[in-house]
Amino acid sequence: MEMCPTYIITIYLLIGISNSISLSRGISFSGTTTENADQSSNSLNGKTKLSAMTNYGDNSYLAPVVCGSSKMGAYKYVSELWRKKQSDVMRFVQRVRCWEYRQQPSIVRLVRPTRPDRARRLGYKAKQGFVVYRVRVRRGGRKRPVPKGIVYGKPTNQGVTQLKFQRSKRSVAEERAGRKLGGLRVVNSYWLNEDSTYKYYEIILVDPAHNAVRNDPRINWICNPVHKHRELRGLTSEGKKNRGLRGKGHRNHKNRPSRRATWKKNNSLSLRRYR
Question: Region labeled Disordered — which residues (predicted)?
């Protein structure tokens, strides 16, 4: 009998939670041990600050927060989980998810983002007009697209393999999503998963014709026609990074407006016709 991957993940998460509880045996819900109860009573007036330094192993992110620490929202805990990608639970979950992703097409629409904390930081809203797609990109270098490996020209340009593409896989994923969904606008994207063959990204897109988007002053800038296919022109966050536009000031002057435009300006001689 085959078991559903979601059912397997649920079982494993329950096992991981039970292990973390067993590791924290003797710790109360406030995060302090029973023998330190007297000390915790003095923590209210700021005399002592306790922290539960128990051995959580790979599940150290489950350690309780004690005494005077600020409250964290739900997305903060989710982001902490994703920061510990090498923990046993996350490695297992990601491995099972990768198996599921491989069985599906390269571009798939999702009901909701897999990483809601990351998606919201990058502009996603759970409202009409916003959609999320998962895109699969093959890893590795890029061969020169020439028939039978024959490159006509000078010997310095004869290379076919061992060539490196100038843009990142994330930028390629945005491009493919934008070409597939021509009526939508790409807002941003983020890394999701990877295995030995593929990398997976989730792309946030909006419908510029939807009233919920057009009437939202925080996102309706993207409805302007100048933002059509911004992912194909290097205008997204990842596109600007690949163009070298993340830095400012010293050692970044030749990157603006672009490296080619700066080179052309510095290597062109323009003379007035009548001198």
Answer: 233-275
Cα–Cα distance, 147 to 156 (Å, whole number): 18
Residue 19, H or E segment: helix 5-23
Note the helical H segments in 62-207.
74-83, 88-102, 116-121, 169-180
Residue 70's pLDDT is 66
Domain-by-domain residue ranges, the chain? 1-24+56-103, 105-247
Residues 6+ apart with CB under 8 A from 68: 43, 46, 49
Output the pTM of the full model: 0.72
239, amino acid identity: G
Question: Of 139, 127, 125, nearest to 201 (Cα)?
Answer: 139
* DSSP codes joined into one string, 127-147: STTEEEEEEEEE-S------G
Cβ-based neighbour number of residue 210 at 10 Å: 16
Answer whether 185's CB lies under 8 Å from 210's CB: no
* CA dist., res. 113 & res. 131, Å (int): 9
Closest CA to 130 of 220, 193, 201, 192: 220
Among residues 151, 131, 261, the alpha carbon closest in space to that of 203 is found at: 131
Is there a contact between 244 and 252 (Cβ–Cβ < 8 Å)?
yes
Q: What is the CATH number of domain 105-247?
A: 3.40.1120.10
Q: What kind and span of H or E run contains 264?
A: helix 259-266
- Residue written as tokens 């590791």? 23
46-63 per-position pLDDT tens digit: 444 444 444 555 555 555
Instruction: Tell me how far apart the alpha carbons of residues 43 and 30 are, in angstroms, rounded to a whole number.
Output: 12
